[in-house]
Amino acid sequence: MSWSAVRAWRELLHRIDPSPAVPTLSGAGAQHALAVQLDALTDTALDQVAAMPGKPWSTATVTTARTVSTAAIEWCAVLLGRGTRVVWKHPLGAPGLAPLLADAAAKVRLPLTVTADRAAVDDAELVVAMGSDETITAIRDRARGTVLGFGHRFSVAWVTERAGLAAVADDAALHDGRGCMSPVAVFTPLANADATLAAAMVEAQRRWPVGAVAPAEAAAIRARRALARAVGAVHEGDGWSVHALPVARWSAAALPRSIAVHQVTDVAGFAEAMAPMLPWLSTVGADAKIPAWPAVRVAALGRMQRPPLVRRHDGVDWLKATLQPADR
Amino acid sequence: MSPWTGPAATLADRVAAFIAARMAGGPTESFAALARDVHAWQVTTAPVVAALVEGPIADWRDIPAVPVDLYKELPVGTLAADEPAITFRTSGTTGGARGIHRMRSSALYDLGAVAWARRCVPGLPTDTAALLQDSATVPDSSLSHMVAAIGAGSWHMRDGELDRSGLDARVAAAPGPLFMPGTAFALAEWLDGDPAPLPAGSVVMVTGGFKGREHRLEGAELLRACRDQLRPARLVTEYGMTELSSQLWGTPEGPFWPAPWLRAVAVDPHTGTPLPADTEGQLRFYDLCNLDASIGVETLDAGRVRADGAVSLSGRLAGSPARGCSLTVEEAWARRTP
Question: Judged by CB atoms within 8 Å, which residues 232-291 of B form the interface with A?
Fold first, then answer.
């Protein structure tokens, strides 16, 4: 067990500057994203995990997607704390925070190494795979150990009080809206919620300026803008946009600092819009009661991308799933 | 009888005259004037086009270009929903919604497609053996429609599968040169079977990509294998889109040349602002033959447009949003439905 080393690692990470390693986010955005991730590693939460019974794996590989480079931190913390040797397999040409985190881990003698080599999944006893469905299928094909796969998901907000919209803008600013727990759309019975959200987006942009937007992302935002000009309304400013659209035009596309607002009559209208998408729904940020959907996390507005360490992840008891099965 | 009436009929005649004059080398009215007039009519009859107008149109490049994604979302164009139309649809290979391009008549489409194909490939054989689905079977395929307009012949794709034996027999029995259009994937599939060389004077046309499928032969390797195995007199490339009515033709080593009634602009994908010549950007097209849809079409492709109008294609725009995070409702239903 290495829980004290994990705490020391966390303290080291609080002091690093992540911005050079995360070129897709602004400096303020990168620091915010890292700080939020580390906030989940509270002493209380780590103690809870440490107290869980079970036999840890000897080796694990954690593979991450390009979108949210801090996503692996909590997985590494839990596995390293239990004494597992961890390899962080990052996308080729996009190491993100991985090298910085490995350097910090080495300073406190935690066995964390990084690589872009796909072979890292071959012989690990446990592979935690995050990425596209295609990536996870490919990893399952070549890994000989246990694979926990988490494909891309999307998240939305259900807002019934106008005051909640500022918190949605904060949720959308974190990771510039690219995370699976970022709200891609707001569903609301409120009239003119788009204008209120737009004002909040200005403030979020002031605090955490948007980072780099890829050409295809920019083109997709302009396409949605064109759609909104035709059948909705457009609000936009430096680095952000809000598009009011009919609910029939809702899509789960995650675009940086760009949120669609769909007005519905009531929560039943929201549920109807979600129905075909539930298998891919990660988190609903809500300020009122919503239907109970299995495997869907419900969070307070402003906490969508701040999940506690002790939780189910995409419906999976991940803290248990990262231990060896009891019958081994 | 022209299916167009009133101002549209006049515009159709002007576009047809433009095509004919440019092919004959005679004087024409300016592209800019005709483009502005077509757009002005579309603004009065196509609500989606009208919604995208944000300022005065001083230059044809100011004409708003409809993003291709809108062709999936909304009825783009001048036709009412209940009007009879020739309808082309995108392939929808990802299981998502299909883009729809409706037109009252394919007269301008056919006139331009045939004229430009024959100008770009002099001596193009009239006997066609297509690595495509029969246009009669898939009347909503703009590619099959274009090939049918260029020349009659045989079709050798059925339900997405290559009719290898039929194609081999067709080549063996051909009395003269063949025109062999096909997608890159279909061509790669055929080459896997080690086909015999083509009759002397044959022309192979490669278009499109692999639509998410994988094959050992791609890009330059595919074209090299095509030359080595099939030994065509000419290997040409074609770039077209369901949302366009006109095409670009080229060679594997060179750029694509748009028809004179089709112009390309590379724009900054972040702002939509036109970029200087030879600067990589997001490709936009202005197509006079798109009379019933939108004269301006914005693609998701990246490339450069030279000062002389030629287009170098780089591929899809970089940094597409993650697929699993980009499901549309239609895609989700498609995935859930066996």
Answer: 269-270, 272, 282
